[in-house]
Amino acid sequence: MPASVNILRIGATIAGAVLLLSGCTAAPPADDPSPSASATTESASVEVAVNGPAITGTGTAMDPGVALAIPAGDFRSVTLTVDCAGDATFQVGISDPAGAGLSLQRGRCGGDATFEWPLTATTEKALSVAIREGVAWSVTPRFSTAEFVVDPEIAEDCAAFSGPYSAIFNADVGYAQYDDVDEAEWNERIDTAADTLADLADESSSRLAESFTALVPILRDPQRVPGDMISAMRPQTETILDACGANQTQVSINADYGA
Questions:
Q1: Which of 22, 24, 184, 248 is within CB 3.0–4.6 Å of 5 for a Cys-Cys bond?
Q2: What number is the average pLDDT over the span 5-14?
Q3: Whole-model pTM?
Q4: Using alpha carbons only, how large is the chain's radius of gyration in Å?
């Protein structure tokens, strides 16, 4: 039966999507450290921003992650600036069980790595980081009274992409792992997904239209390998999943297989 866990918990190949599987609960947050912060504005009529202490670590910190001290006040969003050396890729996230669960965003060390999340009453006071073993990192939070703004066009496209992406995922898994989908059915499902994505690209008003368009010839490639389409699509889908994650409108995979 279909199900829902963050994809990072079952493998990093489709990080940024949320796999609909059941039976997973969020780990309890760690104790808060004492915050050291400073207000940066003068009036309640404009944005108030507070800088929190830097959070440091080495390697992956997941379940329960590292304590995130959220200061008292009407703070509605947080920006995380990630600093790490080298060219390692990383994922950073804050969990909100009432929202998208553990929302992860991806970046690369040595670049402009700043990410934003909404803050709600259910936001967990824990930061999660996934990075190569032995890589030291620092995350500096900046809390703001400004609302996190969702781009509605990207949100619409992320929701629409979930359908064909789920179909491709299930075709690959059903063929390659469960022997439940034969080659003829796999081809039929991929052709249908290609047609859906072509329509989505034509109808899209967001910057994701370019990535949707780029996926269509990959899906229709006469040399495509049954069971390997998710891998073949990865560069384009990473762009889509990163944009959806940054917009806090995660792509969901309605999985036909799993516990």
A1: 24
A2: 35
A3: 0.77
A4: 20
